Amino acid sequence: MFELFIPFFLLVLFILILSIIWRINARKFISSGTVASAYDAWTQDKLLERLWGEHIHLGFYPSRKKNIDFREAKVQFVHELVKWSDLDKLPKGSRILDVGCGIGGSSRILAKYYGFNVTGITISPAQVKRARELTPAGLNCSFQVMDALNLKFDDGVFDAVWSVEAGAHMKDKAKFADEMLRTLRPGGYLALADWNSRDLKAYPPSFIERLVLKQLLEQWVHPNFISINDFGNILKTNKNSAGRVISENWNTYTNPSWFDSIIEGIRRPFAILSLGPLALIKSIREVPTILLMNWAFGKGLMEFGVYKCRG
User: Fold this and answer.
1) Tens of pLDDT along 233-257?
2) Beta-bridge mates of residue 191
């Protein structure tokens, strides 16, 4: 009995220590400024870029080919969302707004492979600086620091608006949708992908699920999650969408990303070690949250929503 108690005690002690570390280093959403600060830090320490490449989003894994390379899957995700949302029907030279562009990975694909003229915006000055550094001369990409809830563009100036995994950082989802659709020309295309919760009103979370959601919100500066259906309704009722909105849950295609994001550290250990011992600590610190994300998406507590509509 005593031999069984020791491992259990050590497990409880480990969880308590981890909880304290998480609490001290929590990245709670307070305002858009906390989102900017978090992404500035993630960009400046270069850990995510070294491990995940230029695309800080999930990848697309076709059901018949699960062993696709992690970075290749991220590129594939961009192409799949372009095809699914019909952006490939737009002619070269079309003006695209990339909302929450990160360090510009998706923007550069949209410009290079489809010939679009892309404007990327992010609230992080460090991301804009790095995006500009990574963008070759002659590629039709430009980047600006801008709040997605207060876009400094005239109405209807873009042929398409693109946004991947940015909406979860927006406290006012309706305003987020309104600003994107406002800048979209009549007949233009919206292509959006985001992290959503399941419908928590129809299917209330258990005690364990509430704890998991709390950690997912506090660790990666998320103010709230809403369901795919709820955000789809926000888009449908917006005066600029004319109600033509289609949404899907891409959990099956994107879920392998979570384990792959951890395995990348094993595949490319020098990417971490070359940044010094602090980088190793930082990378280990993210593992529990990634595992919780994997569990939440795998159980259906979280869903990966994709949306398309016409302006």
Assistant:
1) 999 999 988 778 999 999 999 999 9
2) 162, 308
Can you state the angle between helices 277-299 and 256-267, rounded to 10 degrees?
160
Cβ–Cβ under 8 Å, residues 196 and 231: yes
The answer to whether residue 265 is domain-embedded is yes
Alpha-carbon Rg for the chain in angstroms: 20
In a domain, 167, yes or no: yes
Total number of domains in the chain: 1
CATH code, domain with 135: 3.40.50.150
Q: Hey, what are 20's tokens? A: 């304290």
Is residue 33 assigned to a domain? yes
Contact 49, 43 (CB under 8 A): yes
Classify residue 1: in a domain, yes or no: no
Residues 6+ apart with CB under 8 A from 77: 55, 57, 58, 59, 60, 164, 193, 254
Range of 229's domain? 25-310
